[in-house]
Each structure stands twice: as C-alpha cells, then as structure tokens.
C-alpha cells in the first residue's frame, strides 16, 4: 500500500514544474571580474541578507555551489526566493501541497544550525537541522498551502557564527515528493530582453522597456535580484527598469576598440555604471570629416574697365548649405522592447 502511494506521488510530481528559479545557481549576472578572480555576489533570483560583520556570499566553482559565509555575530543570515512570482500563481498553488528539498554542506570548521522553511503568508513549514563540521545533508519539507495564501517563500536561515555553507541545490514542486531536474516554471532567463514589432502590449511574463523608468514593486524580487540597481534605485530601494525609448542597441565593445569612444559612454537613467560596460549609453554624432567647396583660389582677377568681380577672402570662413534632418540614423523599424520577469 505504501509502495503504491509512493509511486503515485512520484508520478504526480513528475508532471509538475520546479517552482524554484535558478535552483542550481547557474546564473550569476552580478559577476565582477578583476585581475585575480571573479566576485559573483548573489545568484540571480535570490535575496541574501546578513547585516553582520564579515558576511559574504559568492560561488564555489569546484562544487558548483552558492557559497555563504555567515557573519561573526548573532545576526540571522537569510537566503530566500519568492517562488510565487509568476502570473496566476494562486490558481496553481493555493490549496495544494508543495514539497521542497535543499542539499547543503557545512564546509567550515564549526558546527552550525540551519533552518529550511516554506512560508505562504499565513503558515510556515520548517525543519531545523544541526550540521557537524564537514557534514552534508539533504533537508526535505512540505507545506499545505493555504487557499488564501498571499505569497510563497522558500528560505534558508542560520545564526551560527562564522559558518561556511555550500548551498548546492534547492528545488520545490507540487505534490508530496520534491523531484530534481523538473522543467522550471520560468521558461528562459529572468532579465532577458525581448522585442516585438506587431504589438505594443507586453506579454504577461514581461515588462515594457518603452515607458518612463519605473521602480519595481515588491512583487518582482527575482527581477530586482537580476537588475541589482544597475539602472538606479527608486525611493523604496528597488531597482529601476531601464527606459529604452528611441534607442538602438549596440553590441558591447569589450575592449575591441570598434566602438572607439567606449570609455566615454555614460550611465542610462539613474544608473552609476559608465565606460565600456553593458547597459551604458552613447549619444549620436558624425564621424569627423570635411566637404569640398566648388571654387578655385588659383585664378587672377583681370584688370581693366570691366565691372567689379566678387573676390574670395581667405581670412574669413563660410558654411556649406545645410542638408539633412534632426538626427543621424539608419533605416529602422520601431519595436517594443520588454524584459522577462517570470
């Protein structure tokens, strides 16, 4: 009987999708390269909080894990994701059972306590697990989501001083069994730009970039994690969407010197990043050139009783006849640019 129920649970779970975006931490858009290494910051889609001293989050390329170094005080470290951020999530999740699994290793020299939780705005399901130094464990939890749920957050917390954690994978789906390698509820990558030439209305999973720059709301924490204030932040501290109205796109020069003024590029909107970097702006201009004037300075004005002739004054400048419009541009088609959030 138990075996039959277990098989049914697995079959049901196999028909679901992984609710956790970037569950294995492949996407890190906050990479900051320097001469010696790459600082990965937080992985896309995840929110990391630890206000204590010497706290750090990064990436371990040997184990392909999100690395978290807990601060050396009693402040709580929280690593979480709002897994309900997709259209009509209430229809899919509310009143259903959600199961989740986290694979975590304590690679530090101190023992630690870790709490793995799911929260739906009303109820919480969690498991507090003790890890010895160098110990790796799989933690499984489930939650019967309330029909009146207002959110669905999955989180890992610890207040153990100086703990060093490798978060290897975190996944969740509907049903009584959490299965790895299910297709993600998000198809593609959050933050990718798309474009349309037959509509001015973005799809439900995308936001328009052809409007005045606006601050993301609390409902877009995963996209906010991707943008990370690149184009500035609003009054509430969330990232501003870039305003791309009227702009062409150009491939990043990346020191190729094809874009000869790349180092003079400026920030878009309220952003702080300039120079030869992705997301910066370059105003239009003509390449320096000159025009031929159709006259000859080598001739002589003949003397005699003839009528006076106009002469050329080489000490005074003059302009050619104006030609052209109000900007420099190529032939183009107007399109709607959007950014994916779910």
First-to-last CA distance:
39 Å
Biggest β-sheet description: 5 strands, antiparallel
Contiguous low-pLDDT stretches (5 residues minimum) are none
Strand content: 25-35%
* Strand line-up across the major sheet: 3-6-11-8-9
Based on CA atoms alone, the radius of gyration comes out at 30 Å
In CATH, the architecture of the largest domain is Sandwich
Helix amount = under 10%
Just give the CATH class of the largest domain.
Mainly Beta
Could you characterize what this model shows?
The chain is mainly beta. It folds into 2 domains: 2-174, Jelly Rolls; 188-296 and 311-342, no CATH class. The chain is built from 3 helices and 15 strands. The chain has helices at 2-14, 89-93, 221-227, and strands at 32-33, 38-39, 47-49, 56-60, 65-69, 77-82, 97-106, 112-119, 124-131, 135-144, 153-158, 164-174, 193-196, 206-208, 336-340. The strands form 4 sheets. The protein has a 5-stranded antiparallel β-sheet with strand order 3-6-11-8-9. The protein has a 5-stranded antiparallel β-sheet with strand order 4-5-12-7-10, with no helix packed on it. A 3-stranded antiparallel β-sheet has the order 13-15-14, with no helix packed on it. The longest helix is centred in the first third of the chain and has 13 residues, at 2-14. The radius of gyration is 30 Å and the shape is elongated. The mean pLDDT is 91. This is Phage tail collar domain-containing protein.
């Amino acid at each position: 009987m138990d075996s039959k129920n277990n098989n049914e649970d697995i079959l049901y779970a196999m028909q679901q999708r992984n609710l956790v975006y970037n569950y294995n931490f492949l996407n890190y858009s906050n990479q900051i390269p320097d001469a010696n290494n790459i600082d990965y910051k937080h992985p896309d889609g995840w929110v990391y909080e630890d206000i204590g001293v010497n706290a750090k989050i990064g990436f371990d390329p040997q184990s392909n894990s999100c690395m978290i170094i807990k601060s050396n005080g009693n402040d709580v470290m929280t690593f979480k994701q709002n897994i309900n951020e997709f259209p009509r999530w209430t229809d899919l999740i509310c009143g259903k059972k959600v199961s989740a699994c986290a694979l975590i290793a304590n690679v530090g020299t101190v023992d630690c306590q870790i709490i793995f939780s799911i929260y739906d705005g009303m109820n919480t399901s969690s498991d507090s697990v003790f890890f010895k130094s160098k110990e790796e464990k799989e933690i499984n939890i489930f939650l019967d989501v309330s029909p009146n749920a207002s959110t669905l957050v999955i989180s890992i917390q610890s207040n153990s001083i100086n703990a060093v954690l490798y978060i290897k994978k975190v996944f969740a789906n509907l049903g009584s069994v959490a299965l790895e390698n299910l297709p993600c509820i998000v198809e593609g990558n959050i933050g990718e730009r798309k474009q349309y030439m037959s509509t001015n209305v973005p799809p439900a999973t995308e936001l328009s970039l052809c409007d005045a720059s606006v601050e993301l709301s609390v409902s877009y924490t995963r996209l906010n994690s991707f943008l990370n204030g690149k184009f500035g932040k609003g009054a509430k501290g969330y990232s501003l969407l870039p305003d791309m109205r009227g702009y062409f796109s150009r491939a990043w020069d990346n020191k190729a010197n094809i874009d000869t003024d790349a180092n003079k590029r400026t920030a878009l909107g309220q952003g702080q990043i300039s120079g030869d970097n992705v997301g910066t702006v370059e105003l239009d201009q003509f390449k320096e050139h000159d025009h031929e004037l159709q006259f000859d300075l080598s001739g002589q004005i003949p003397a005699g009783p003839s009528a006076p002739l106009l002469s050329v004054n080489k000490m005074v400048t003059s302009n050619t006849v104006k030609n052209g419009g109000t900007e420099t541009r190529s032939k183009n088609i107007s399109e709607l640019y959007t950014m994916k959030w779910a």
